[in-house]
Every structure is written in structure tokens, then in C-alpha cells.
Amino acid sequence: MGWWRARRRDLHLSDAILPEAALSIPCRAPTLAVVIPTYNEAENVPLIVERLRAVLTGIDWELIFVDDDSPDGTAQRVRAIARAHPQIRVLQRIGRRGLSSACIEGMLATSAPYVAVMDADLQHDETLLPTMLQQLRTEPLEIVIGSRYVAGGGVGDWDDQRASMSRLATRLGQRLIKADLKDPMSGFFMLRTELLQDDARELSGVGYKLLLDLFATHPGPLRFRELPYRFRPRHAGESKLDEAVVWEYLLMLIQKWVGPMLPVRFIAFSLIGASGVLVHMLVLWISFKLADTSFLVAQSVATLVAMTTNFFLNNLFTYRDRRLRGWDLLRGWFSFVIACSIGALANVGIASWLFEAHSFWVLSALAGILVGVVWNYAVTAVYTWKRPKAD
Ligand code: GDD
Ligand code: MN
């Protein structure tokens, strides 16, 4: 029959190709995988590949780019090179963003026993890699870190603001972990792949703080060494470390400090809510006492103004990383006012119900306020400041 013959032909075809293919595919398992997270780094790709090729001679290596669907076509650029170099590939993530999670997924994609992470923009000193590997292989170390803050290292030509910001982040990070790490914010390190595979499920995977995360997560101390290097200026493109990343880091630190039971955003939300009482009283006093409006009108105006200042303050601080702009601001304000109005009704309802049931008036009021705040926080977290889709 026709289809049968076709199948036979296919079989013959692949029979003919297979032995040849087996001969031409070099079959050496990699010893070292280098994982490079990328977002809009197309121009840097050929350069970093060339630098790594030059420095990794004598080592069986593979190179894994993890690209978050960069609009500048970084992934295509990698594929173009990978066609001629099977030890290079790209893991392209769609609809996702995040440096740490990109590194983790890249590291999980290799079978090599040693894995390094470095940036694509040539800021990290790739000539350190052979030494890092050598030390991991011959000494009882689990992780070797490229460090800007040990003798011989440096941050290069950073402006004062970036340098002091980095120092502050570093100091705060050091408090989180027990190890005496000089550069816990380093994005350049090499480790035994096993270590990552063991701890991967416990890592937070958020933001830029992967190394810190590795140290904080690992049960027991990690055997580490820091090797100095000088942080170079970025080659092409621009940094993605923006204020949202910094804010996220601060929230994470505060969260560790206040404990996992109270979300740090809830604390910020409540503090801003308390400031709203002051705003309310001020506006009430101005319109009722000075402008001589009726109490009902003055109270209503004060309520709306306080809600509005609360909305903007929350937008600026509590949800800085999801900040609403443009038309979203109007939509957000509207949903905030609706949510808080319902919250106020719930507050009054519960407080008066408790009061009727012969509760002490202060406790009744506090219980009402608590219910109102929790309601406002929960509802606006979902409707006003939705978690954004990856951009
Ligand atoms: N896949 C992916 N997704 N890659 C990303 C993302 C992302 O959302 N954001 C940044 N990257 C990639 C960049 O393309 C680059 O290769 C690398 O991660 C570092 O990003 P930069 O934007 O260049 O960061 P930086 O130079 O400002 O920050 C460096 O210093 C920090 C500490 O001061 C990095 O080395 C950080 O790792 C380090 O924490
Ligand atoms: Mn960089």
C-alpha cells in the first residue's frame, strides 16, 4: 500500500542519516555551564560569546542564554550563533520577567556539574571563570563568587549615588545572612549544580538578589570564597536595575524584619490610612470652621480628600513597583474610593453592632476600624493595584 511504502522510505532515510549524524555530533558532556540572563542585550551577545570562547579553552563548556522575549531580538541573535555552535542555546521565556528566576531556570537546564551565572553586558570579568572552576574542583568549596568588595576588586566608574546605593544594599543584605560575604549583591558566581538543584524549590526567585537568596535558603552555612574583580562599564544597551527593583528589595528586607505573618504592604497601607485621619481632620476644620459650610458637606469633602491623598500615597509608596499612571490612575482612584466607601460602611456597621451588644465603645470602634482597614487593603490589592502581567 502507498502509505506503507512511504513509511518504509522514511525508515530507510533515517537509517541512512543516523550513523553519519552520530559521527559528526561531538558527544562530550559539558563540565561547566555558563548561564547568561538577558533582556535587550542583542548587541552584546556576539561579544560575550567570543570572550567566553577565548577564555574557556580546554574546558568542556556550554552556554545557556535565558531571554525574556526581548523586543530587540536577543533570542534570535543567540540562535543565529547557536546554529554553528551546538554548545550554545537560548531558553526563551514568553510573558515572564525577572533576573533571578531566569538564572534559576537556566541553571536547572544543564547537566553540567558546575554552573556559573554572569551578565551579558561585559561588566563581569570572564577571565575569572577558569580560576573559579579550578577552585571548585580542587577545594572543599560549594560556591565561588566574583566580588567587588574584597581587596583588589572595585566598582569602576560608578557615580556617587549608584555607589552609595550599592553599599547600602550590601550592608542591609549582609544582615540577612550569617556568612561574612563582602559582596552579597554580586550577580557573578559559580557553584556546584547539585547545590542549586537541592535548594531550587525554596528560593524566592524574585528580583536581583539571587546570591543572597542562595545563602539565606541553604540549610546550614555554605562553603564559599570571594575572588576580586573590577566591575567594568556596561558595553552596549542600558541597565534594567530601576527603582522598582530597589523598592522590591527594600520590601523584602522589611518583610524579613517584621516576619512573615504581617505583609509589609499591609503595614504601609495602615500607616497611610492613619495619616488619612489627619488629612480628614484638617480639611474638616478648614471647611467647617473657616469656610462655614454645613457639617454634612464638610465631612463629605473631608472624606473624599482623605481617600484621595491615601490613594496617591499608596500608589507612590505601598505599590511603588506597580505604580498606576495616566488613565489607569483615574480607574485606580475610582476603584479605591468605591472599595473604601464599602469599607467605611462595614466599619460603621460592625462597630455599631458591637456597641449595641453592650461592648465598650472604644473596643467597638477599634474592631470596626480593623475590619474596615483589612477590607480596604484586601480589595484594593486585588482591584486597584492588580499584579501586572509581564511587560
Ligand atoms: N532574562 C532576564 N530577565 N534578564 C534580565 C532581566 C530580566 O527581567 N533584567 C535584567 N536582566 C539581565 C540583563 O540583560 C543583564 O544581562 C543582567 O541581567 C544584569 O542586568 P543589568 O540591568 O545590567 O544589571 P546591573 O548591571 O544594573 O546590576 C548588576 O549589579 C547588581 C549589583 O550591583 C548585576 O550584576 C546584578 O546581578 C547585581 O545584583
Ligand atoms: Mn549590567
From TrEMBL:
Residue span, GtrA/DPMS transmembrane domain: 269-385
Main location: membrane
TM segment ranges: 266-288, 294-313, 333-355, 361-385
Keywords from the named record: Glycosyltransferase, Membrane, Transferase, Transmembrane, Transmembrane helix
GO annotation, biological process: glycolipid biosynthetic process; polysaccharide biosynthetic process
A Pfam family recorded for this sequence: Glycos_transf_2
UniProt topology in membrane: Multi-pass membrane protein
Gene Ontology molecular function terms on file: dolichyl-phosphate beta-D-mannosyltransferase activity
UniProt superkingdom: Bacteria
Entry's family note: Belongs to the glycosyltransferase 2 family.
Protein name as annotated: Dolichol monophosphate mannose synthase
Organism: Halochromatium salexigens (Chromatium salexigens)
